[in-house]
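Two records follow; treat each independently.
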Amino acid sequence: MAHHNTILTQILRLLPRHDFKRLAFQHDGKRRSDAMSRWSQFVSMTIAQLCGRSSLRDIESTIASQKHLGYHLGSGPIKRTTLSRANQTLDYRFYESLFSKLYALCQNRSGKHRFRFKGKLFSLDASLLDVSMKVFPQANYNNRKAAYKLHVGLDHDGLIPAFAAVTPGKTGDQTQAKLMRFPKGSVVVFDKGYNDYGWHNQLTNQGIFWVTRIRGNAKYRVLKRRPINRSQGITSDQTIEFTSLRSSKKHLRPVRRIGYRDAETGKHYVFTTNRFDWSAKTIADIYKQRWQVELFFKWIKQNLKIKAFMGNTDNAVMTQVMIALCVYLILAYLKFQSRIAQSLQQISRLIHLNLFARRDLIELFKPPPDTDIASPQLGLI
């Protein structure tokens, strides 16, 4: 019988350790030999994410029950007080750098989006992570509740997060969006919360295309009308120019305005874009794909631990959320590299049930052999 390490050990081996060590030295320098290492912190918090552990005590007891695995994992014994101190003091930006490394790793294996154009397609959105006002007074959102905000730019090549940041809940969506750097020729999709005409103009000047919905109170004049195909749900296709006083001072370029009625729901949508050569139906279909980022938020909140936090400082919260995103990318990389047919939901559940089992990682996702095993108890004497 072949020897196998645990499922957890095989998952952690997907992460390039030399890159991990180099990043740790860049962010932390040389640390005391008796201090908790970055690797031990990451292993502990990864176990929490994959096992569904919700407290430091749970992590400590889980790892203590698997002491014999410490050598293979490359981490020492974990105490909850030491882990708590590490989460509060070790800079969370290390995991932002690790996130970028893992995204680059996934890019080489991921599939492509469903549209014909060759450029990247990104969807932008942000989601609130509600926390207790008493425990997190520094995250005061509106004097009635406290919250942090997770900002994500989702890459539709593989449906993986390409950009991510955690901020206090009051931080505007546009503030983080302006910090993201998209490849030239890519298409960025976002909702009304990102409607900053000046930023849209900057994207156009950078050679980046965008699709969004127009505000209901937008002031504009029609410069040109195009023929429309009502059988596809298109109600209007125009070139417009914004006419408000603030818009005129920014010297904005004309944009394209498209009206679309969804045949399934009957709802009417009005989009704007700086892409003039694609069909109006393609623009509507591109915006419809923005729903994938909503599904991403739903998945990560249901399957990873980003709703109950194991520390009450900003650094502890941001560390936990960024590690959760790193775990998501590791699972995505496993799926891309091994061409696993199951969804990430099924993959995470199988790993949750078999995390400390000694068996081949890839065999875990293969269907059982279709053979009937006869039981002696069923035979007639």
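The next record belongs to a different protein.
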Amino acid sequence: MKSLLKICGVNDIKILHELIMIDEVSFIGFIFHDNSPRNVTDNFLKKISKIDFKNKRPVCVYVNSSKKFIQETSSYFNNPILQFHGDETNEFCNSFNNDFWKVIRVKDLLSIEKISEYHNASAILFENYEENMYGGTGKSFNWNLLKNIKSLDMKIIISGGINIKNVHNAINIKPWCIDINSGVESSTGVKDLNLISKIIEVYKHEA
């Protein structure tokens, strides 16, 4: 089955409207983390409720946030997926009436075994481990560690430094979904429609 595609770290309304029109994009991610250059502003959030996402599913990204903050910010979206990047437990992630994705920061094979702690997750997202750093590092991890993911009874998403040069390698792993963020930016936190178009073309050809 063809891998799905997520573009994450969107905080520009114009870019959002363009992504909604791209058939190949299934998920659009929004980051709620003050330390991220892609953090969603209150002004951006106020415009969200007026936007028709059509067949795209919004994904709200959090790092060790309070339950109140998660409930308030995700309420602007219709049926969002919640994506947890921090030290949240399965019970906490599952305490909202939403599908959730749990992020596993991959350092070695033992990291992948943490999947078993999140049996209620609708998908597991693997990203690169970097000490004391949550959220995207912009770097790839050793994707060979995922060689046996086909045997896992779980939807797998891969992320971390995926760009025009290596997206075909990500596709070849055949994950359920590929998460692209900094690889389609002209500068940190600034999405580039030209780079998005180029990576979509590779995706269409390879997937």
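Discussion point: Residues 6 and 168 are 15 Å apart (CA to CA). How would you locate this feature using only the token line?
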